[in-house]
């Protein structure tokens, strides 16, 4: 015979087991949770089993991307976060404001990671030195199963389920060439002349984001020169004279040796979106990183759009 959750005859959940569940919820995998806690995989599995027995129900469900919380698991994680906050308060000096700690996992595009996320997080860590942030640089659609990720930043409006999504801001793409390339090959005066030059951009067959397919829609006649999945390669290949690069203005405008071409014809505006698990903002560290990213994106707005600072 089973007992309803909260029954007097059921053993109360162990606080250590709740903290193990919290680690699994944040990483999406038993192995990663075990590593973060200094335990082994078997111990994590045993702790989760003990917690499910105490709560008389499943707290995790297996998905393609890892482990996801059930409704009961989400309620248990809320309790685990309270335990974590209480422990953090006890460890701090009396009367001191609690500091952020733990690991926040973020995935974002290369340019956003380098020029927005990195400085925003570094500033946040100056007053919260125990906060760790792991950044995975990738250009893709938002994941349907985001086990192990707290925050995703993607290009284009995401189509996701069981997630919170909001637009962070916009950035601009433009056509650029190096001064050396233009001295050798001439300045294209219109779109027809520009299409005779080679293009530096993403690998067409590997591009996962529809919004980034603009060059092949705007100038399908341009042949590919150097293609890469990394936007920093686009910038450096363009600077090296490999062809004309379709580049984020906030990255290209940092280099005096690059010249923007036909800005009135080529000004592709794209949105950055942020995607979060429904429970992510309950974590103080995640909420703080989200706030820092939003503030940094807003402060960087003119550069993102290829405009001089106001």
TrEMBL record:
Keyword vocabulary terms for this entry: DNA-binding, Transcription, Transcription regulation
GO biological process, one term: DNA-templated transcription
Alphabetical list of Pfam families matching this protein: HTH_1, LysR_substrate
HTH lysR-type domain boundaries: 13-70
A GO molecular function held by the record: sequence-specific DNA binding
Family in the record: Belongs to the LysR transcriptional regulatory family.
Protein name: DNA-binding transcriptional LysR family regulator
Originating organism: Cryobacterium roopkundense
